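Following up on my earlier message about heme C. Here are the inputs again, as you asked, copied directly from the submission form:
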Amino acid sequence: MKRGRAAVGWSAALFVVVSSVTSGAAADDLPLPRPAPRDPVLPIEGVGAPTDARCADCHAEIALEWRASLHRRAWVDPYFARAYAFERTGFCRKCHAPTDDPSVDPSEEARAVGVACTTCHVVGANVVGSRALAAVPGGHVVIGDARLATPAACAGCHSFPFPGPPDREPRARMQDTLAEHERSAAAAKACQHCHMPRVPSRDGGTHRNHSFAVQADPSTLARAVEVRGVSLAAGALRISIAPGVIGHAFPTGDVYRQVEVRATPVDASGRPRGRSAVAVLGRRFGTVTSPRGPARVQLDDTRLDRPRTIDLALPPTTTRARWQVVWQRMPPRVAEFFRMDVRDQEVVVAEGVATREVEVRR
Ligand code: HEC
Ligand code: HEC
Ligand code: HEC
Ligand code: HEC
Ligand code: HEC
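Thanks, got it. Here's what our run produced:
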């Protein structure tokens, strides 16, 4: 980022559109998509007032995908609403209602649009895309910023520390998907490669899918993990798992995300015959007191980021056991606290049955 331009903010952005009405310019020093507070959006040549409803007039298919997405529902989602009720702060509002001023309660519109078209694509009076386009009749100039095709477009909201004064260290990362991505085997693939795949458009062309579906798409979750082997011995079920087609830890994102690896003794018809053994892949946090005051720290991280073998203890007499790898939006105790049924908030990403031969002595 070149410092001069960034410092003058959207007035500089306005200058860009004035100088490029017919040609569509390239830029690499505009503000990237990020939390509020943001520069005001201004009427755009060929578009008018930049509202999501207006974008949808001409980009109907993308708008339909976005409407069903968690980006659009970032404020109205019932799980967010429950969590926010305990922590009504501008810190939460700046990412979950980023089109408004985070120092006050969001307007009806900001709640309804969540992470909006304008959040990611409008800077001042400009539409910004990953490539520059000249205005076509019935369209508008697009300022091309190649960084929109890279993880930089996601970094502002998907990697951040717990709230608190910047001098209060150590301070754990609340989400760190970008750093996990850099360490992953898919580091060379952009987030967009997996989360915005090209899909067919009605007009015969293609466009980048804007539904960003993970929770609503069990097939994406199923690709996250590869089960390399399962065996049942006396006293334990052993399961070897490895990251699948994924670009960060499994699970990633929110502090409460976790994965349960379960084994349950079953009879020949699959009915449970004893207690389940469970291993949790997730993060745990605590609070330490430094001379400057309390700070959040990460106590441990058992999420999947490399191949791993997990042993689940079962009664030694077990000859048949069902195993499951289950993604959970929140731990069962948190679901209970929020009066949500955890079974509605989890997705089985892999499962099977393991058996072992037992020698019968006479
Ligand atoms: C009056 C119709 C119209 C409106 C309103 C409109 N657009 Fe567009 N937009 C177009 C047309 C036409 C193109 C050029 C498509 C092409 O050349 O493939 C385009 C191109 C784009 C592109 C670049 C596409 C690419 O292929 O690289 C982006 C991003 C975009 N618009 C975003 C928006 C956003 C965000 C809004 C709302 C603020 C918006 N548009 C409002 C008609 C419109
Ligand atoms: C810097 C941006 C940012 C801030 C600040 C932020 N969040 Fe989030 N939040 C996100 C992102 C990005 C996700 C999506 C991660 C995922 O899907 O796992 C998310 C996910 C969540 C989820 C899970 C939603 C779901 O669909 O399961 C909850 C609940 C949540 N946030 C609550 C909060 C609360 C409460 C605050 C304030 C204390 C807050 N967030 C502050 C960016 C932010
Ligand atoms: C302005 C902030 C912001 C930006 C920029 C942003 N996101 Fe998000 N994203 C969020 C928030 C907030 C949520 C969580 C919404 C919720 O569940 O409440 C989220 C959720 C998601 C989810 C979870 C969907 C699901 O079904 O669980 C994915 C995937 C995602 N974002 C990918 C991306 C990618 C890829 C980019 C970059 C191209 C990006 N996001 C840019 C704020 C942002
Ligand atoms: C190689 C493919 C791939 C790449 C690259 C990738 N992801 Fe993912 N992502 C996945 C899969 C598979 C899942 C589902 C498993 C999970 O939730 O961890 C997922 C899940 C997510 C979720 C949802 C978490 C939740 O619990 O709701 C977010 C947010 C996300 N990715 C953001 C990103 C961001 C940001 C980047 C780039 C820094 C990125 N991803 C790169 C494959 C990928
Ligand atoms: C979370 C951020 C985010 C949101 C919200 C978002 N977009 Fe995008 N959009 C992107 C990114 C990033 C790209 C560029 C992807 C690339 O080129 O790799 C893109 C690409 C596009 C394109 C070009 C599509 C193509 O085929 O290359 C259009 C048009 C577009 N967006 C319109 C919209 C409209 C309209 C909305 C609202 C309905 C919207 N976007 C919401 C991030 C977002």
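One observation from looking it over: Residues 3 and 29 are 8 Å apart (CA to CA). Hope that helps, and feel free to reply on this thread.
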